[in-house]
Amino acid sequence: MKIGILALQGAVREHRNLLHRLGVETVDVLAPQDLNGIKGLILPGGESTTVGKLLVRYELLEPIAALGRKGLPIFGTCTGLILLSKHINNSDQYRLGLMDTYVERNAFGRQLASFEADMSVPALGAAPFHTIFIRAPYISRVDAGVSVRLSYQDKILFAEQDNFLAVAFHPELTDDTRVHEYFIRKLNN
Predict the structure, then answer these.
(1) What Cα–Cα distance (Å) separates residue 97 from each residue in 9, 77, 84, 100, 146?
(2) pLDDT over 60 (residue 22)
């Protein structure tokens, strides 16, 4: 099994290292041909406007969206959550538009408002998950078909729809592999 990691910006190395610890082969996705043969795709954090423009420049926006519509499992963290969403409040930036979600960008404030917290995520088991939020977005609303896996103060931080998984935090910056394992299970369904 091989998982692609969009390698235009963000925590690519951290996702790669975590997946390698789980015994998963990875490929950095920088061009459309890098999508060949992958069983899933991770969209890491970064700056969503910039990544959206780079997706267009490197001719990846439509090929990734098409694969997602055909059932390719896609997992977005932070910026990836924004790019997966059909609706980005007060923004017309480029996006994949695959999940029936409404997103607020930089919703917790500027860089200084970044934070960490242990949160209960029942889908991941009984032990709390250490979440890391860096200029994080959140999902303000979901349409039918989207399952909420974690919310905090009326903000949705972890959602799933069909073959898509999106989190507002950075699981790749922790030693806890449970979110990535959850994604890997989607590839095996």
Answers:
(1) 19, 15, 5, 8, 14
(2) yes
